[in-house]
Specification:
Elements (H helix, E strand, L loop, with lengths): L8 H18 L3 E4 L2 H8 L14 E5 L5 E5 L3 H5 L7 E4 L7 H9 L6 E4 L12 H9 L4 E4 L1 H9 L3 H21 L9 H14 L8 E5 L15 E10 L2 E2 L2 E7 L4 H20 L8 H12 L12 E3 L6 E4 L13 E4 L2 E3 L4 E3 L2 E6 L2 E4 L8 E3 L1
């Protein structure tokens, strides 16, 4: 049976080897992952059950040996076809037999082990938290630990194949906007704009089930408010390709732009370029907010209040670690993909533009371009 996994066998095996090294570092005997993106990252098993809160999907990654999957019965055949997976155990349907977790851990020799779960910042469990309290009763000698450090490190640095997918997601995003713009006219509603941009992302190659995301002027309420002559549209959006996101923001004016529109736009572009130049491997991420604030204040705009971020990591989530703010402790490292979006604020306006940046051994590289163009809709 062919698999639907987007990566090669070796990609998943490499992920397991990295995870096992990190488990050794963190004193863990296994990672137990159930959050949708973590589960997909390690298994490659595409399942509608990941959006079904009544049917958890769980992957146990032992420090030694192949992963074990607990899956809804309809996914058993697909799971067993994955050559990088060890044992597959299935349950029939709701209600989920929560005792299955403890029984499986005990049967594979992890009943008295240090188990890392998705308990920290930027993590979420894919099953009810009360399952954990009952798991401690079922396995009194096991230690429930936080596996966040290992999980964050895994997804922080992208593999070459992940970066290729993100390049495609970024290209789809930019092309979709270019496709959408000629369809817009003053008087259109936000709903009409959103419809056209989502359709454009799909037409350019985004998946119909997960085409991406869109915020118009900081809102996801696609209603009957209209863009009229003189209005500024800030579109923050990104296509999803093979589960990986692009994330860009563009500014468009309905009618002729004012001097204020042009100044805000030029400032946002200039600050992006200054920040980009500072994003060198091995340097502190926290410095980027200071770079932005120095330039904003010099030009008469408001400084971004700490710890407000001016960017973030992207990948399988449209926003993930690290955060581009003054309290981030990470350094720039090759393989990071970051959405850079300095905020340009004054008493009269609020603007931000956004480009995606890959950190390489030689320095930062833009994965998206085009925010320097101020689009006009007449």
């Amino acid at each position: 049976m062919p698999t639907e996994a987007p990566f090669t066998d070796e990609e998943y095996l490499t992920r397991y080897r990295r995870a096992q090294t990190l488990m050794e570092r963190d004193g863990l005997d296994a990672l137990v992952v159930s959050e949708k993106n973590n589960y997909w990252y390690f298994t490659g098993l595409i399942s509608y059950q990941l959006d079904h809160i009544q049917r958890p999907q769980i992957c146990v990654l032992p420090k030694i040996g192949k992963p074990l999957l607990l899956v809804y019965g309809n996914d058993k055949a697909k799971a067993k076809a994955l050559p990088w997976i060890g044992e597959v155990r299935a349950y029939t349907d709701v209600p989920f037999p929560e005792e299955m977790i403890g029984n499986c851990l005990k049967e594979i020799g992890l009943g008295e082990s240090n188990l890392g779960f998705e308990l920290g910042d930027d993590q979420r469990l894919g099953f009810p938290v009360n399952y954990l309290s009952r798991l401690t009763e079922a396995l009194p000698k096991a230690q429930i630990k936080d596996g966040t450090a290992a999980l964050t490190e895994m997804r922080l640095i992208k593999s070459p194949q992940e970066i290729d997918f993100m390049r495609t997601a970024c290209a789809i995003s930019v092309k979709a906007y270019d496709r959408c713009l000629p369809q817009l006219r003053p008087g259109m509603t936000r709903r009409e704009v959103a419809d056209r941009l989502y359709i454009s992302m799909i037409e350019e190659g985004a998946h119909p089930r997960h085409p991406g995301f869109l915020m118009l002027n900081s809102s996801t309420r696609y209603d009957d408010r209209r863009y009229n002559q003189g209005d500024r549209m800030i579109a923050d959006f990104g296509a999803c390709y093979e589960g990986y996101y692009g994330d860009v923001t563009r500014m468009t004016i309905f009618g002729e732009p004012t001097a204020e529109h042009k100044k805000d736009h030029e400032t946002a572009c200039d600050v992006i370029e200054l920040c980009f130049e500072s994003m060198q491997p091995g340097t502190p991420i926290a410095e980027v907010s200071r770079v932005a604030n120095r330039e904003l204040v010099k030009r008469g705009y408001q400084a971004v209040e700490s710890p407000k971020r001016i960017g973030h990591g992207i990948g399988m989530s449209r926003a993930e670690p690290p955060s581009l703010n003054e309290v981030e402790t990470e350094l720039y490292r090759p393989g990071m993909v970051l959405a850079l979006e300095p905020k340009v604020r004054s008493e009269k306006s609020a603007v931000h533009l956004e480009e995606d940046v890959l950190i390489t051994e030689k320095g930062p590289v833009f994965l998206t371009t085009g925010c320097r163009k101020l689009d006009i809709i007449k």
